[in-house]
Every structure is written in C-alpha cells, then in structure tokens.
Amino acid sequence: MRYHLLLGGNEGDVDQNMAAAIDLIREGGGVVVGVSRVYVSEPWGYESDNLFHNVAAIVDISLGPREFLASLKEIERMLGRKRKTAEHVYQDRPIDIDILLCEDIVISTDDLEIPHPRMAERRFALAPLAEISPDVRHPLLKKSIKEMLDECEDCGVVSLAGNIRIGRL
Questions:
Q1: CATH topology of domain 2-162
Q2: Hey, which residues does 99 pair with through a beta bridge?
C-alpha cells in the first residue's frame, strides 16, 4: 500500500528524529519512495516559542492502515513521544507522524481517520506534500494536493529550511 505521511516536531533535534523515524520505517519493511525538503512553520493550534520542522514522505509498505498506524505510534514512542495532547490542548513534541493519505482509502473511526481530516486546512502539511505529490488527489475532496494548497485559507507562514533533506532515498 502507498501512504503519504507528514513527519514533524518542535522539541529537541527534530531533523534527527525525522531521519531516525524514516530509518525505522525502512527497518519495518517500508520502501521510502520520496521525502520532501524540510519546511519550518509556527505551531498550529497553540502557542510555543519552538518552530515546527516538517517533511512529507511517500512510503510503500505491505501493512494495512491499522497495522501501519500502530507501527508509527511505536516509532514515535521510541523517539521520545509521550502523548499528542494534554487535556485536548496541543503541546511541543520531539516527533509526530501522521498518515495523510493511503491510496483512495477512506476510514473514519475513533482512532484512525484517512484521509487526515484537517490536512486541507493546514498549509504546513500541504506545502511539503505538494513538493513530492502535487497531482495526487484527495479521495473525498476530489482535488489535487496542489489545488488544495492553492485554495488553503491557512495564513500561517511555511518556509523552506534551506535545501535540507532528511534521510536518504
């Protein structure tokens, strides 16, 4: 199955954590087909002095969505992730890995939503994804990633962190 992921964080050596996460995905049987450059943005949904670093990645792996999500959560835990929110409030984190898309699959359960329910609202997710998969279409919105980025109303500034690349292909 082909997955489009967003990796990021804003605590500690995030670039190293993202590289380690990509290596661990490979060790778990994933074939990393593409990784965007590093993008930097302000935190979304809460206040922090720490900027976020994000990359998008394309991964082919034989795991189904639930199994792959469990694997990604274990990678997050191994790299120091404790919890996503505290009392429903976002907080700084060393690593975060989200499944944005999985082919044309649509899943909506309490613990897994594919496509990611807020990806079209988040410039920090769309910008790196548009770099590596501009023509991939959202299965519900029927728009390409590039179209969603062009129409995104999120005014947050998202910029390249130079020409930095995470990991190797």
A1: Alpha-Beta Plaits (3.30.70)
A2: 5
